[in-house]
Each structure stands twice: as C-alpha cells, then as structure tokens.
Design goal:
By secondary structure, this protein is an alpha+beta fold. The protein has one domain: Fe-S cluster assembly (FSCA) (GMP Synthetase, Chain A, domain 3), CATH 3.30.300. The protein is built from 2 helices and 3 strands. It has a 3-stranded mixed sheet with strand order 1-2-3, with helices on one face. Helix 1 packs across helix 2. It is globular and about 35 Å long.
Length: 91
C-alpha cells in the first residue's frame, strides 16, 4: 500500500520524470506525465520512442526503476498510447 495520495505524488513524480527526460531526449524521444492514479504513473512516450522496440524497457528499467528508488517501491508505470489520454481507466 502506497502511503501517499495521488495529489501528494504529483510533485515528486514530476521531479523524477524531469530527471529521466534528458536520457530519453538523447535518443530523440520525450516523455509526458499524463496522470498519477492509485499508485500508477501514466506516461506517454513521444518522438523517436513511438514504435521503438526498446520503449518498454525504457519505461520499466529507466522510468519505473527511478520512481521506485526515489519515491516508493510499489509505484508502477503505465504507458498511455496516443489518443488514450482521456481513457486511462481503460488501460
């Protein structure tokens, strides 16, 4: 159980996303925080990340790992496909 509300997590999650963004940008991509909901961090990769075979690894071993180290070990990252930004409950 994560001892923080979604609202409390927004600022630290944003900090971590901003921390990993330069690494993603080196490969021609970008990452956008869509929402934090029930311990899930909903993000969207863009640029060169779209369709890249390594994007799943980037999220799991880069972004999620950093979130878990910096904030809480039970956080999980969910990729939001383009066009699904308003339908995260369906993911």
């Amino acid at each position: 159980m994560i001892p923080f509300t979604d609202e409390e997590l927004m600022a630290p999650v944003t900090t971590v996303i901003d921390k990993v963004r330069p690494s993603i940008a080196l490969d021609g991509g970008d990452i956008t925080l869509i929402a934090v909901k029930n311990g899930g961090v909903y993000v969207q990769l863009s640029g060169a990340c779209v369709g890249c075979a390594s994007s799943g690894s980037t999220l799991k071993y880069g972004v999620e790992r950093q979130l878990r180290m910096d904030i809480h070990p039970e956080l999980k990252v969910i990729n939001v496909p383009l066009g699904m930004e308003n339908k995260i409950d369906e993911l």
